[in-house]
Amino acid sequence: MNIVVYSKNNCVWCDRAKNLLNSVNLPFDEIDLSDDTERSEFYKKIGEGVKTVPQIFIDDKRVGGYPQLVTWFEENGI
Question: What is the C-alpha to C-alpha distance for residues 75 and 64, in angstroms, rounded to an integer?
Fold first, then answer.
């Protein structure tokens, strides 16, 4: 399983998502979007009106933010 977390500094929801993944020992790559320019480019790339972090991708499929990650955990029995 390949997990990527797009996050930024001082983001409570980003920290919660990373802590949740760490709590069940699921390794992930983190991409820091703290730079406004990088974040703007990322949002343009994924579209769908997304303007928040974290954005979590599992096996190249966008799960969403922290609440969607919790739902994904529930749906997958984790």
Answer: 14
Residue type, 1: M
Question: Which parts of the chain are beta strand (E)?
Answer: 3-7, 29-32, 55-58, 61-64
Q: What's the rounded Cα separation, in Å, for the pair 52 and 62?
A: 13
pLDDT tens digits for 10-32?
A: 999 999 999 999 999 999 999 99
CA distance 60 to 36: 23
Q: How far apart are CA 62 and CA 58, in angstroms?
A: 7
Q: Is 48 left (phi over 0), alpha (psi -120 to 50) or beta?
A: left
Q: How far apart are CA 58 and CA 34, in angstroms?
A: 21
- Among all chains, which residue has been given the structure tokens 């979007």? 33
